[in-house]
Amino acid sequence: MEQEIQQVQEVYKLITEFFVTYSFQILGAIIVFVIGILVARKVAGMVFRICERKELDVTLSRFISSTTKIIIIVMVAIIALGKVGISVTPFVAAIGALSLGAGLAMQGLLSNYGAGLNIIIARPFVVGDTIHIKDVIGQVKEVHLAFTLLTDEDGVEITIPNKHIVGEIISNSHAETLAEETIGIAYDSDPEKAIEIITHALLKTDNVSKERMPLVGIEDFADSSINIGIRFWAPTSQYFETRYRANSAIFAAVMEAGINIPFPQQEIRILNDEYLSHKVDKT
To answer: Is 136 helix (H, G, I), strand (E, B) or coil?
Structure first.
């Protein structure tokens, strides 16, 4: 019992001596660390506001702000550890070894982060753009370091790992999507009149882009009709709604103008019995 009491007293003495010796250093380290966190938050917020004033992309602005905050906190932590008398050299070596092991174990994840950093810096697209990668198309909702989130008019969210984006051919139509339609008119109709009527109907349709003017013209000559090709831009978030509304407006305008929309026709010739028997006798 006396031995246990003596051990407790020794431990108490060591703790007391430690706090007497290092109390001011520990207090100073805590104060430095708290002040450093506050400063890091303020500086990060200031950097973000500067990026906004420079009209940088919101994803890039957040990345720069977060990186600035992390760098300041790491520097403050090193200073705080030095105040207590702890050398950071072993920690740096351990972090290096852990980073090497983690890098080998998470090559796929790190490749996504590297690709995400490339996207944020190079900015091949930004939030709100409509992109087409391989067989996937959608409007960019969020850009993260590991993945990019797309969405469509139906609210379906598509998550693409960033390593599958970098190095691929990307089609970027910004906030709009191209709609392509075809309508056939009879050969005895005036195609120039039809083109004018269709263009006018498109320009009166809501959400059809007026900055990117619709393109209407003769696309090809079919067996039963002259096919009029129609191309116009619609907001990606309302693509199908705008497309259906435009089709209704085009059909109504063509009908009102009296332009005939023919249906496919085939000519069938029936030979009479006398002709058939004459052909048989000759053979």
So the answer is: strand
C-alpha to C-alpha distance for 150 and 140, rounded to whole angstroms = 5
This prediction has a pTM of 0.63
For 5, which DSSP code? H
- CATH class of residue range 176-256: alpha beta
Q: Reduced to 3 states, what is the DSSP secondary structure of residue 201?
A: helix
CATH architecture of the domain formed by 125-172: Roll (2.30)
Biggest alpha carbon–alpha carbon distance for the chain: 137
Domain boundaries, the chain: 2-105, 125-172, 176-256
Q: How far is CA 262 from the centre of its chain?
A: 43
Count CA atoms closer than 13 A to 249's CA, side-chain side. 19
Which pLDDT value is given to residue 283? 53
- Which CATH class for the 2-105 domain? mainly alpha
